[in-house]
Structures are given as C-alpha cells and as structure tokens.
Amino acid sequence: MPFIPHTEDDTREMLAAIGASSIDDLFDEIPQQLLIRSLDGVPPALSEMEISRLMRERAAQDGAPLCFIGAGAYEHHIPQAVWDIATRGEYYSAYTPYQAEASQGTLQTIYEYQTMITELTGLDVSNASLYDGASGLAEASLMAVRSNRKAKSGRILLAPGVNPNYEKVAVAIAGSQNITFERLPMNAVTGNAADQLDAGTSPVALVIQQPSFPGTLEDVDRLTDWAHENGALVIAVVNPLSLALLKAPGSWGTKGADIAVGEGQPLGIPLSSGGPYFGFMTCRQEHVRQMPGRIVGRTTDLEDNPGFTLTLQAREQHIRRSKATSNICTNQGLMVTAATIYMALLGFEGLRQVALRAQQNTALLISKLTELPGVRRLYEGPHFHEVSIRLDRPIAAVLDALARRDILGGYDLGDALLVCATETKTEVDIDLYVDTLRDILATRDLRRA
Amino acid sequence: MKTLIFEKSRNGRRAFAQAPSSVDDAAIPEALRRKDTPRLPEVSELQVVRHYTRLSRQNFSIDTQFYPLGSCTMKYNPRACNSLALLPGFAGRHPLGPVSHGQGFLACMYELQEMLKAVTGMQGVSLTPMAGAQGELAGVLMIQAYHKARGDLERNEIIVPDAAHGTNPATATMCGCVVRELPTGSDGDIDIAALKAAVGPKTAGIMLTNPSTLGVFDRGIVEVAKIVHDAGGLLYYDGANLNAICGKVRPGDMGFDVIHMNLHKTFSTPHGGGGPGSGAVGVGSRLLPFMPIPIVRATERDGATWYDWIAEDELPQSIGRLSGFMGNAGVLLRAYVYMRMVGRDGMRRLAEYATLNANYLQARLRDVGFQLAFPKRRASHEFIVTLKHEAREINLTAMDVAKALLDHNYHAPTTYFPLLVPECLLIEPTETESKETLDNFVAAMTAIVTEAKGGKSFKEAPYTMPVRRLDDVKAARQLDLAFRPPG
Hints:
Number of strands of chain B: 13
Structural class of chain A: alpha/beta
Shape of chain B: globular
Order of helices and strands of chain A: HHEHHHEHEHEEHEEEEEHHEEHEEEH
Structural class of chain B: alpha/beta
Number of domains of chain A: 2
CATH architecture of the largest domain in chain A: 3-Layer(aba) Sandwich
CATH topology of the domain at 80-342 in chain B: Aspartate Aminotransferase, domain 2
CATH superfamily of the domain at 80-342 in chain B: Type I PLP-dependent aspartate aminotransferase-like (Major domain)
Largest sheet of chain B: 7 strands, mixed
Shape of chain A: globular
Order of helices and strands of chain B: HHHHEHEHEHEHEHEEEEHEEHHEEHH
Helix content of chain A: 25-40%
Radius of gyration of chain B: 25 Å
Helix content of chain B: 25-40%
Distance between the termini of chain B: 23 Å
Largest sheet of chain A: 7 strands, mixed
Strand content of chain B: 5-15%
Number of helices of chain A: 12
Oligomer: heterodimer
Strand content of chain A: 5-15%
CATH architecture of the domain at 80-342 in chain B: 3-Layer(aba) Sandwich
C-alpha cells in the first residue's frame, strides 16, 4: 500500500485495541446508503517508476521553446542553491509556524524576507506574503478602504497601465464589498495617464503600476502627489526586480506610496505555468493593523534571548472569525523561503546586474525588431525589460507561425505585441527571433509561414 | 545563534556566480531612477547555504517529527511528487505560452479535474483557487451568483456551525453576507431544531465540514441537506477533512452543491511552512455556469485528444478570475502525481487507515486516562481530548501539554480549537504513521501527566528548543517586523 506502513499484524492488533472487528466497523456511523463501493473515475495506481516515465514524457512533450513572453511572469536564471535548500524537508514539510519554539527556522526566514522586501520597496512593514500579485491588489484595495476612513465612496482609481487581469481578479475578490474600480484616461502618445485628470468624489485610492503593463514608465511622482492632494491613498504595483533600477514606491512623490504590492515570481520562482508564486505586500507603519495575512515579529524568550513569532494575530480569521481583516490564512511560505535565499545570494548589486542585463537585452531586441518592415514601437519613451510593438500583420497569426518554429514571440495585446527579453537571452537568441520574424513577415500566407 | 543574514554582511562581498558580469548603467530618466541602496545582505554563496541550512534545522517538519496537528492532515509528502513537478518542461513553462506548447501539462490538469470529480461526486471542477480560503471565497461567490441569476435577491445569510474553521465566517463576510452561527448538539452533530429555526427566505446557504472539526461524522447530514434545500439554500462543503472519507463517501452524494478541497491536506502537497496551498473547487450541476476560470477542456482533434482553456467568452456567468494566471499549477502537478500513485483502490485506503490510526490512538489515550470530548462516538480521522480536569486538578493545561510534547520531540496537536471544547487537543495522526509511532506518542502523553501529578510544572516548557517560550505580548506591543541596523 503506497505510503501506508501497516502490516496485517498491526491492523489486527489496532482493531483489537479499539474493540472493532474490521476497518469497515469504524465507518458504522455513516448512513450506509451513502457508502460507495468503487471509484471508476480514478485509474488504477501507478508505481513510482511508471508515473516518472509518464511525467517525463509529458514534460518533454511541452518542449523548451525560446520564450519572449513576460506580461506578469518572467523567465530568470534561478541559482541552484535556491531550490536545493528550499526543498529541504525541514522547510518543505513544515506547517504554519503556530508553535513558534519549534518553527524558528521558518519564522526567522520570514523575518529576513520582510526586511528585504521593505528595503526593496522603501516602505516600513511587510506581511509574510499573499497568494500572488493579482490577488495582492484585491487585498490592497480592501485594506485601503479600511485605512482611508474619510473616503466613503468605495472608488478605487486605476492608472491606465494596470494589468487588466489584476483588475479582473480585484473585481472578482473585492467586488462584493461595495468597491468599484475605475480607469483613469490615457495619453495615447505616451501610454501613461492623461495630462488632465479628474479624481471625482472622494476616491479611496489610486493604483499605479510601474513599469506599466504595456511596458512604459509612468510619471509616478506626479500621480502620487495628485492622488494625495485628492485624499486618496496610493497603491503601488511593482515588479520587484525593476526596483534595482527604478525609484522605490516609498520615494514616489512628496510623501511616497502608502501600500506596495506585486508579483514576487521574478525573485527565484520558476514560471511553472503560473504558480505557485507569491504576492508581496508592504506599507507605511500607520497602516500595519489593517494589513491582511500573517506577520512575523522579533521578540525575546524567557531567558531574554531573541526569537521570532507570529504577531498581530488579532487581525486574523482564526481569532476574529467574521470580523477578520481577510479570510486569508496561508502565506506562500515555501515561495518566500526561495525568494529570501535568492535575494541573499544576489544581494542588491546582483539584482542590479540582472535588471540591467534584462533592460539591455530588451533594448537590443527592440532596436533590431524595429528595423524590420512594418514593425514599430507602440509608445516611445523609456522602458525596463518589456516593450509593446506594432506589426502590420495579424498578431495572432504571426505568433502561431513563430510558435511552430518553437519561438514564443510575446503576449498578444490585440493591437500590439508585448515582448520581453530577460537576462537569460543571448544575442544569438535575439538574432534567431529577429531573423525568424523577418522570414515570417515576408510570407504572404501566414498559415504556411 | 540568532544571527541574521544581514549581520553576516560585509561591504563588497558577493556570491559572484549568481548574476551576469558587469554591464553599463541603466537607460532610465533621472527622475525615475533609484538613488538609494537597499540594505540587502552582501554575503558569499557558502554563507547563504550554511545560514539557511542552519535555519531549516530549527524547524519541526513531517520529514523529521510526528506532527499530529488536528485539521491539518500532516501526512508524508512523497518526494516523487516534488521532483516530477519540477521537471524542466513543467517548471520552465510560461503561463501565457500557447496550448500547442502545453499539451503535456494540460493533460495532467484535465485528468486531475476528472479524478477530483470522481472522488467528490461533483459535476465540475475548477483548479484555480490558490488555497482553501480562496476556494471558500469562490464557493460563496458562486452561491451568491446562483441566487442572483434566479432573481432571488434577498438571500444574504450564510449559516455556519459554531465549530467551524474561522475561515468560514471570515469568507462569508468578505462576500458581503451576514453570518448566522448554529449551535452544535451535545453529541457533536448539528442541532436539527436550531437549523430548522435558522433557515428561511434569507438563507443563501450553509457552510459545513463533515466529518466536523469535532472529529465526528454528522449522522444527520441527509436531513440537514433536505432542510437547507427545502428552504431554498445551497450546501457548501469545507473539504478540510476530506481525508477522513476519501473513497468511502462523496460530498456530492451527501447533497452538497459546492466543495473546496485542500489539496495540501488530502492529496499530500507540501505545507511549505505555511503555503502554497491549493483549494480546487467542485460543483454540482446548478453551479456549473458560475465556476471560476480558467478551466481545462478536452476535445477530439485529428483523432487525438486536444486540451485547451475555457475562459470568459465561453463561461459568461463565471464569478471570474481569482489569480493572475491559473492558480498554483505546480502544486496541482504534485497532487496529480500523488493521486496517480495512490490510484483507485488506494483512495479508499487513505480514509480507512487514517481512521484506523485515529480510533486506535483515541482508544489508547482513553485507556491511559485521558478524557475524550465525545467518548461515545467513533473518531473520524481525528479526535479531541479535553484536559479540563487536568487543568483544574493538577494545573496542566492544553498549552502546557503542547509545549511539553515539543521536548519529547513531537509536534503539538492543535490546541484550543474548536473553541467550544475547553482545554482541548485536536489530534490527527494521518494514515502514514506507524503503530510504533502512535504507541510512543501515548507513552510521552502518559509521562507528561505522570510528571505533572508529581508536582512538575510545564509553564516554562519547552526547554530543548532553539528558544524558550516567547513573549507574544512584547511582540505585539513593541513591533519589530524588520531588521534595521543600529544607528
């Protein structure tokens, strides 16, 4: 029996101790008409050898295409040490650190993570993480409503560059609590927020994504000050790697952003078809009691030595039940462990090198792509490691043709193509993409390209 | 011993292998540029490896200790599940990659959906919720969407038994519902008379765990379902205790309309120090149009099976998206591998041996003098010991026993939950533990009580952990949530 250690003797002795004659007896309180006899929908068991072969075949079937897609999840080199250590059984198979004395490893790791992510975002405090970046925005919106008590409108404003999927997730999660999300108008030339903005009646918060979803860099100082002048809090949605080059949310405008959230995946987490990732959340000290999720604090023990424990638990569902700040009870502990090891290995200088190389690779890719006929940038202006380009051919058909040659050419925005070249791309990779696209664009019938 | 990674930092030290060699300065306008230098550690690769290896060894975990934490199903996490989920083809796949480059991955996801439908007796499964609590949110949102689609707009009450997990009422509140708490009868089953009084035209639904958090199977479940359905409400199944009935009884057959499954419990994906979890949801036919997206579909194409996504355009009444992409895909792969290795007959054995272990441990602890919360009931996969007598007579509380067990190298059971049993320990051994482990645990529990009767106090336990008992009050009053170097 896989993973069950009982011998026939064990089972017999245990039933005798219970005073039952068979295992079936143990289920005698269940109404008998509910008991099922077989599970046809589940196939018979495979041995470890058999399932290993099946999974290797399926993983190989998906291939190893050359990937220029970003759009919220990014291919980065992950040092071997990261997952070697994170998957040690002591991290991998531990539970939530409710018994602090027996969980100091996880607790100190989270405390170190909280330190690193507050340093990176330039804000005071961090929680132990949320599910992912998109749901992080939903939680930040709910938190802003709790924090900004003067604004009773429930209106959350979104800068034009906020990831459309983040908005969908925020609407699904937070929409039933009288919160509405409204997009600010866009300047069609820059892709950023329009020059003239109207805040309307008492907005709760403004969400600014930097870099924006289509890859532009927003004037975060102007928008932050504008939001604060209108009584709104500022929620920053940021790529943590970009913070090696770009101004930290805590330094935006005169007073800085109030809350920062984002997708932690670029910090050592594999792409893995979309998860598990982790959402980070940091904020200014004054909002800490409105934060959702677990938080680790440093304290002392009976002998006055330092130690770590979960704190401010009176906000949480297992204590407050229907009055909790959120129903959330998990953090993405294992992902945060990996991200902490990743950030420790790279240090700030290492992160900066990765970010610089990604920016330069993208710049090289764009300069070569825009030399092709009919290819031009959607928006001018500076970028981090992602840029939107226009083609004069149907984008979906071009992407299909590229995929047939094992190149994933970017994310289809409908009217443009969002491309990304991180530090993992070489000049040879970039030339292969450009040369292949040149061939495809020269083909009259894209279905045959 | 408690040195932080930051305190090992030296200016200019680096783990040089981990980043590309130097490149030029960034092309970022002055006003958008970062000027300060965040204080990330500057350490060597060996220092990092040693530091986090040392920290890991300060954890209790399933791989190193018996972990009978009630309601958490801390069973063995097979190693193959991890290594196969991290195969390069899976780990490197971009979530927005075309389905042409995802057929292997999608085949696993589709088959996982089908297996979960079979195990739960539901008609549809969506894998996207990222934890049990998010599965609960999805479930209540679907119940609301169902009533709304029928024009039944007054139903905003969710009934929750007083023994429920805290996430149940917190979820109902997040969805904008009013929570009505339901008392439990003295035998551990739902108080049917109270239920009849609670339902009505405002009832949106009821959230139940069965077996309940009291460690007993609710014998009146068929009647409960009828009462709620007759009142126009729907039944939500909190799948936290699915391990107790897996392959024996199906929530769909009990009358539930929607269920979330904690794949990190029943299907043995790792708890990871508090996540990632995975909270796939299953629904009956009434809620099919409202499932969260995306969902994997299989069709025939050129004589072979072809997998793709069902998204907004094909499920317009969906409650929408709950994650940036499709949820915790890597966790789902681990659950898939686990279910294939356990297989059709093995599913039933999970429940059978988890229940055998719980009833055996319950009988042994009763025989050495511990009081059971529900002595006349069968245990499910877990059971409750109450220490109210010990607390009164020998000053030994549930907290004391929990901390004393750490010194015996056992993780503590769940303490002070459910809230309605005083001084309780909720004990869940799981099917992967051997009889010897359970016997040794009984010996440790006996020793603790014997020592307490002899006058020993455990108020300052544990003694053998990396730290002594921690000052939680100070932690909350003098918040220290991030390291800032002195000066």
